[in-house]
Design a protein that fits this description.
- The chain is mainly alpha-helical.
- The chain has one domain.
- Helices cover about 65% and strands about 0% of the residues.
- The chain has 3 helices and no strands.
- It starts with a helix and ends with a helix.
- The model has no long low-confidence stretch (mean pLDDT about 90).
């Protein structure tokens, strides 16, 4: 999940010019450079990753990370129980 999120984040950063260009209006200054003429604004390409897709991937990464942490805690508990059971079986 982490790798997927990072890949989407990288794709979004690559296409961020198209997101910014979507807000350009003739005669209005560009938020990046201040130009009021926009002869060749960037265009979205197939597979463009928007903020929603990036945020959804981040949320999935966070859920997966929490699940992993929870599983690691449960594994620790099981290991402790197993060690206690082995000790009890040995009479100790």
């Amino acid at each position: 999940a982490r790798e997927h999120w990072l890949a989407l984040k990288e794709q979004r950063l690559t296409g961020i010019a198209a997101e910014l260009a979507a807000h350009l209006s003739d005669g209005e200054p560009c938020a990046v450079c201040g130009a009021t003429e926009h002869p060749a604004p960037a265009r979205k390409v197939a597979g463009h990753v928007d903020r929603q897709a990036e945020e959804a991937a981040l949320a999935a990464h966070r859920r997966a990370d929490e699940s992993r942490s929870s599983a690691e805690r449960a594994l620790g508990d099981v290991r402790e129980s197993l060690a206690a059971a082995k000790a009890a079986a040995r009479g100790g």
